[in-house]
Design goal:
Chain lengths: 113, 115
Amino acid sequence: AQSVAQPEDQVNVAEGNPLTVKCTYSVSGNPYLFWYVQYPNRGLQFLLKYITGDNLVKGSYGFEAEFNKSQTSFHLKKPSALVSDSALYFCAGKGSSASKIIFGSGTRLSIRP
Amino acid sequence: NAGVTQTPKFQVLKTGQSMTLQCAQDMNHEYMSWYRQDPGMGLRLIHYSVGAGITDQGEVPNGYNVSRSTTEDFPLRLLSAAPSQTSVYFCASSLAGGYPYNEQFFGPGTRLTVL
C-alpha cells in the first residue's frame, strides 16, 4: 500500500530564517507529489508539484521543494520565512500504478516575529 | 469564476438523520472528489468522479453516497448520520483529463457535527 508521511506535527521558525517541512513517501512506480497549504477556516491551496523532470521544483509564495528519489523524500523549503507563512501544510502523492492520491497528516508551521 | 463552492458551511445533525452536502464548480473540471479532514489524520478520500455519470469509492466510502448527473455538481449524501461522521468535509476538482497530474482546487469546507 502506498503512503505519505509527514514526521513533524509542528515546525517553529523565526521570521527571516530558512524553513523546511519534511515529507517522505512510499509508492509503487513513478511518484507524483504535491504540496498544499491550508489557512485557518479555508480549503487547501496548491503550492507546487513534482511529476517528472528537475528535482528542485519552484512554486507559489517563494516556496520550493526538493525531490530525492534515493531518500524517497519531497521536503518543502523556503529561504526566508515570513509570519504570513504560518499555516497547515499537507504533502500528497501517489505512484503511477495507483489510482488515488494519499495525503499526509499535515504539519503546522509557526513563524515567530 | 466562483471556483469550488460548498453549502452549507456548518451543519448539526442528530444521529440517524440524513442530509446532502452540496458542491459545485464553474471551471468545467471533469474530476471531482470529496474528502474528510480529521485532526491528525490529514485528508481521506470518500468518493470521487472522473466525469458526469461516473463515480468510484475512495478510502472511507461507508455511510456516504454520491452521484454526478452534471459536470458542475457533485453532492455528497449522508444516509444515516453517526457521531463518527463528525468532521470537516472538503470538495475538490481538477482539470479535465489531468488527474492525477493536475492540482486540485478545494472548496471552503463544511463543518459537520453529529450529536
